[in-house]
# Entry
Amino acid sequence: MEHKTFTFTRVSPLRTVLLDIHDHPVYKVETPFKWVRPTTTISRYSGSYEQEMARIHWRFARPSLLVFGGRVFESNTFLKKVGLLGISRKFQAPDGHEYKWVATPRWGMKLISNDGSRTLVARLFEGSTFTSKRKSRLEIFPAGIHMMDLIVVTLVYVDKIRRDRQQKPNTPLVL
# Structure
């Protein structure tokens, strides 16, 4: 089984379209510019139309809410903090396995199995805001093909947390 690669049309994980290797849109991430209670909507393209797949209701004093698969999850119980900085997050997927998003200093984030084998499931290469030649891209490896939608949804959440921490290291994180 091969891996999938998606290229982001914009650097921001909150406002972008993920394109496949043929430049066809596969996922769309929209977040309106709002100061109070912004909501991110994540859609999947199916043929010529888009279907809403998930929403993230960002909150600042309470845990954010993730709506996915017909269920509502509080971010602090679904994507549990790992480590002192709280940037790494772990979650249990519907397949019963636990996975962990980890920030990497050289290129962005990686998703690994949290079972001791540390199997690489997905990897985000962060693009450059200064040149369009180096765009952000997400690679999903065979170990993650069965849960691509979940990978995209959790990536949007953890990458926003990571970027918030990088831009304002002394401010509290969104929960």
In short: The chain is about 15% helix and 40% strand. The domain at 4-167 is CATH 2.40.160 (Porin). The CA atoms of residues 127 and 142 lie 23 Å apart. The radius of gyration is 15 Å.
